[in-house]
Amino acid sequence: MMTNILKGDLNRRSAMGTILGMGAGLAATAMLAGCGKSEGSAPVTAGNIDGPPEKPNLKLGFIKLTDMAPLAIALEKGFFVEEGLNVTLEPQANWKVLLDGVIGGQLDAAHMLTGQPIAATIGYGTQARLIAPLSLDLNGNAITLSNKVWNMIKDSLPKQGGKPVHPISASYLRPVVERFKAEGKPFNMGMVFPVSTHNYELRYWLAAGGLNPGFYTPGDVAGTVGAEVNLSVTPPPQMPATLEAGTIEGYCVGEPWNQQAVAMGIGVPVVTDHQIWNNNPEKVLGLREDFAAQYPATTVALLRAVIKAQQWLDADGGANRAEAVEILARPNYVGADAAVIAASMTGRFTFEKGDTRPAEGFNIFFEQYAGYPFYSDAVWYLTQMRRWGQVAEDHPDEWYFDTARKVYRPDLYLAAANKLVEAGAIPASAIPETDGFRAPTDAFIDGMTYDGRAPNAYLAQFTIGLKQGQRVTSGGVTGA
Questions:
Q1: What is the DSSP string of 188-233?
Q2: Where in the cell is it found (predicted)?
Q3: Does the pLDDT of residue 4 top 90, yes or no?
Q4: Are residues 146 and 245 in the same domain?
Q5: Where would I find the beta strands (DSSP E) of 55-129?
Q6: N or C: which end of the chain has fewer CB within 10 A?
C-alpha cells in the first residue's frame, strides 16, 4: 500500500501543475528553499515534450546488479516500445566505464550510482553536467564479512532463538581490527566506487560502531587518512572472488553478490542497507543535461517507460517478482543463478544457510515514492561527501540546496508521471505532495535524525566525521 512518507510535513501539490493537463505538482520542481530553477536546466512545456521522441534509438548502460531491473523489465515487457523507443541495454565493465560512456555520449543514459551525477556536477573525480530525473529504487545493498572474520565475532553476538540479533553493529569488529593491527596487517574491506551509496553506507555502519573508515584529501580517491578500516574499490560482480582470494575481509555491494557469497559458502552478510538507513535512495537514471535539453520528448518517454516498469515490479505485493528473477538471471542482464537472485528479490534475505529472514522492503522500485527524485536525497549524499572529505571545505546550507537542484530534476519526472496519471497507467496517489524534501527521519542504525533542510546541523551531530572548519591533509585532520 502506498504510504505518504511526507505526512505532516510541508507537503502540497503545486497549483501551478496544470501544465499539459498532467495534474498538480509539476511546477513544484521550481521550488527549493525559495530558490528558482537551476541555471541551464531545460524548461518543461507542452511544446517540447508532446509528440514523438526526437531520438527513438537509444543505448542505455547498466551494471550487473538486480537493481537494474526497471530497465530490463521496460525492455522485456514492451514499455519502451509503447513509448516509441527502440532501446538497447548494454552491460558495462565497471562504474567508471559506465560514467565515461554517458559523459562521452556512447551511452544515452544509464543505471547509475546516485553519487555519480552529483559528484560530476561539483567536479569531484570528473566535471560534467549530469542530471538524475528519476530514482530507480530504494534499498538493495548489504554488507558481507568473510567466514574468517565472521567466525571471530559470531560467539560475541547477542542471540535470539539461537540466531544472531539483527542489525549487527560494527562495534563487534573492534577486537578483530585491533588484532589485525597487532599483527601488522591492515583490515581491508571493499565497496564499488568512491561516490557510491555502498561507500557511504559502509562508512556509516563502521562509524556508527566506533570505527574510523578514513578521510579523503583533495584529489585523492583512496580515502584512507586516519583509517582504522581501509576501503578499496572492486566492481560488483568481482566481489565474491576478491573476498574468496583474501584480498578483502568484507564488502558492501548490491545484490545478488551478497547472496552469491552465501551460496558459495565464503561469507556471511551481517547487515542490510535498509537496516542501516531504511528506505534509502539507491540508483538513479543518469544522463547528460544537454541530452535532456536537446531531446526533451525522448527523455520524458524514457521516464514513462521506466516508471511503468517500476510499477510492474512492485505490483500486487510483488506478484511479478518471480518472473523478474527469471528475466534478470539471463546472461545478458545479471547472469547469476535464479535461486541466488530470488534469495533477496522476493521479500526475504538469507544471512547464512539456514538463516533466511523476511525482508519485504529489501528492494523497492515503485512504492514509497521510490522513483521521485527528492532534493533531500541528493543533499544527504552531499553531506556524506563533506563528512569524509570529498567536499574539502565547508559550504552554507544553500550550497547543498542549489547543488541538489542542478542534479535532481523532478520537473522531468513529473512531466512523465503526470502524463501516466492522465492516461490511467498509474494512480495519482503514486506522486507525492512535496516541496522536494522528505520529512526528517531517524530510520538509521544509530538513531541519528536527518533533516535535508539542515545539512550543516546534521553533519555536526556525528562523532566521527569532519566538523565545521576542518580540512584533511596527508598528515590528518586539521582545523576547528
A1: EEEES-TTSHHHHHHHHHHHHTT----BPPTT-SS--BT-SSEEEE
A2: Endomembrane system
A3: no
A4: yes
A5: 57-62, 86-91, 109-113
A6: N
What number of other Cβ atoms are within 10 A of residue 10's Cβ?
12
286 phi and psi angles, rounded to 5 deg? -110, 145
Q: Give the residue from 279, 299, 315 where a domain finishes.
A: 279
Whether 477 maps to a domain, the answer reads no
Position 7 pLDDT exceeds 70 = no
Give dist(CA 438, CA 11) in Å, integer: 9
pTM, 2 dp: 0.91
Cα distance between residue 413 and residue 142, in whole Å: 28
The residue type at 360: E
Cell numbers at 36, concatenated: 528558482
pLDDT above 90 coverage of the chain, percent: 88
CA atoms within 13 A on the CB side of 15: 0
Domain span at residue 421 reads 19-137+283-430
CATH number at residue 58: 3.40.190.10
Count of domains in the chain? 2
Span 51-67, average pLDDT: 96
